[in-house]
Design brief:
Elements lengths: L1 H32 L22 H13 L22 H9 L2 E4 L8 E4 L13 H7 L11 H4 L3 H10 L15 E2 L7 E2 L20 H16 L3 H35 L9
Antiparallel strand pairs: 1-2, 3-4
């Protein structure tokens, strides 16, 4: 009798667990299918390894894409010209590049603001004098600053690459308001930014074919560097730190063995008194 009761209870328990699992799986599936955005796939990035560094060629091309395409609407306020030295350009190239930009400085001795050529210590110029001007030029939407864009978005690099390359015609039954563009990777699918990249949109100095995917990959790598310019130096410091820690561990073990070996190898003999 007792064995039959245990059998029935175990059978009911298995049935309950199976029902709960099916319900939970169904709920997850419904939730995933009802999402209003396509999640970006994972892409290989060469600089993401523990011992990997940024590709300076890609960073130079990405900076070129930013200057010729993105800088017309987006700022990069956390980056100064001096931080690009040895990363994308030489010092002389950046001095010449900065001198082409006029920045407002002052006040002077008369208490007035004045314009002067930019220097290496200046930030990269913003396309708008203030946020209100940016909103007025873009139908009320302020283009975000790109300094920390990679860090501020889920799956940052993959998301930005998919967003830049994911523009397409809206599917049937997906009407869009005037001035909006369909992009399945953007929440809601409707984005106010027109497709910024086009094949041959820039002329790379090194002769790399400027396809949409190539431009997107280069600008995403540059924006990742802009969000974390100290990444390469931090990796080098991490390797040096681990080497020092390993050396200290070895020396500590050797010192401990040297100090305690006489005590651990000694023999204690007891003599019986006569």
């Amino acid at each position: 009798m007792a064995s039959k009761v245990r059998f029935l209870l175990s059978k009911n328990t298995r049935a309950a667990v199976a029902a709960f699992t099916a319900t939970a799986t169904g709920a997850v599936a419904v939730t995933a299918l009802s999402d209003d955005v396509v999640h970006a796939p994972s892409h290989p990035w060469g600089h993401m390894g523990h011992m990997s560094a940024y590709d300076c060629g890609a960073l130079r091309r990405g900076f070129q894409v930013y200057r010729q395409v993105c800088a017309t609407c987006h700022s990069l306020e956390q980056i100064h010209y001096r931080e690009l030295v040895g990363v994308t350009h030489t010092t002389d190239e950046l001095i010449e590049m900065a001198s082409e930009v006029e920045v407002v400085d002052g006040p002077n001795d008369e208490g007035e603001m004045f314009e002067r050529p930019a220097k290496l210590t200046d930030k990269l110029p913003s396309p708008y004098a203030n946020d209100e001007q940016g909103r007025a030029a873009n139908g009320g939407a302020l283009p975000p600053d790109l300094s920390l864009m990679v860090k501020s978005r889920h799956a940052g690099q993959d998301y930005l690459f998919s967003l830049l390359t994911g523009y397409s015609d809206p599917p049937a039954g997906k009407p869009l308001m005037t001035g909006l563009y369909y992009n399945p990777y953007f929440p809601g699918g409707a984005i106010a930014m027109p497709p910024p990249l086009s094949d041959g949109g820039v002329d790379y100095e090194d002769g790399t074919p400027a396809t949409i995917s190539q431009q997107a990959r280069d600008i995403v790598q540059f924006l990742n560097w802009a969000a974390e310019p100290e990444a390469d130096a931090r990796k080098k410091e991490g390797v040096a730190t681990m080497f020092v820690i390993g050396f200290c561990i070895v020396m500590t073990g050797y010192y401990k063995r040297q100090k305690w070996s006489p005590y651990k190898t000694r023999a204690i003999t007891y003599l019986k008194q006569a």
